[in-house]
Write a structure and sequence with these properties.
It is a single chain. By secondary structure, the chain is an all-alpha fold. Among the domains are: 2-95, no CATH class; 100-173, no CATH class. It contains 12 helices and 2 strands, in the order H-H-H-E-E-H-H-H-H-H-H-H-H-H. It has a two-stranded antiparallel sheet with strand order 1-2. Helix 1 runs antiparallel to helix 4 and helix 7 (148-158) packs across helix 8 (163-173). The N and C termini lie far apart (74 Å).
């Protein structure tokens, strides 16, 4: 899908007729509101003098035409989008390709080489050989599953028996499915950092965000044990008279 999107962006960038249609549509919409497209353009975009490094005789100002200005602007936007999506696609090809043998239909193709790369990608993994052995033991059970969600149920019941494989699936299933990471983070930020808490420092805000996002893990924490650990860290002495 990303490859098709990159091809579409390239076609849009080189489609002069498409740009012309955009200008005509915009002009028709502005006429509905009695707005002079040409006059507004010249009002907002002043004429500019060429740099002396480019042209010695730079006394005559250079005036952008409407079509030239917006065509250049649109192409810069498309070039930026192409660069970002191309970088994202490269990341997918270089990193996520090592997760392709974790589905029920492809688990038999999981190799030691896959395990070696997963140890370098997934935080919390310490031994590639043990990870490979866990997947070899789990392969028959995973093959009987019809989807990744059924595989997740296996690890929910046996996460302590196969800790490394469980970490891999947890990492894979919690990956963002879109590129809107900043938007999701900002939505969560608005819930945590309201105007009553605007004075909190960044470290406390970060911990609150993590607690809100990973609430399922937070719910499993033994609060009594947490309080005892905190009390040991804050070993306060009370003076008794």
């Amino acid at each position: 899908m990303l490859t098709s999107l990159l091809e579409l962006l390239q076609e849009l960038r080189n489609d002069d007729d498409g740009f012309e249609q955009i200008f005509e549509t915009a002009e028709r919409e502005l006429q509905r509101y009695d707005i002079d497209f040409e006059a507004e353009f010249h009002r907002l975009h002043r004429s500019r003098v060429r740099s002396s490094r480019i042209e010695e005789n730079n006394k005559n100002p250079y005036v952008f035409t409407r079509k030239e200005f917006y065509t250049t602007l649109f192409r810069k936007i498309i070039d930026q989008l192409y660069m970002e999506y191309n970088t994202y696609l490269s990341t997918l090809n270089e990193t996520l390709c090592w997760f392709k043998h974790l589905s029920p239909s492809t688990i038999n193709g999981f190799t030691q080489n896959d395990a070696d790369h997963l140890v370098n990608i997934v935080p919390g993994l310490d031994d590639a050989l043990l990870l490979f052995q866990e997947f070899k033991q789990l392969a028959p059970s995973i093959m009987r599953c019809s989807s990744i969600l059924e595989v997740a149920k296996i690890f929910k019941e046996n996460s302590k028996i196969y800790p490394r494989a469980s970490i891999v699936y947890q990492f894979m299933l919690t990956l963002p499915i879109t590129v809107a990471t900043n938007e999701r983070s900002f939505s969560k930020l608005k819930l945590i950092k309201n105007y009553l808490r605007s004075t909190m420092d960044n470290q406390r805000l970060f911990y609150l965000l993590i607690s809100s996002i990973e609430y399922d893990i937070l719910d499993e924490i033994d609060m009594q044990k947490l309080v005892q650990d905190w009390a040991k860290m804050k070993d306060r002495k009370v003076v008794v008279y």
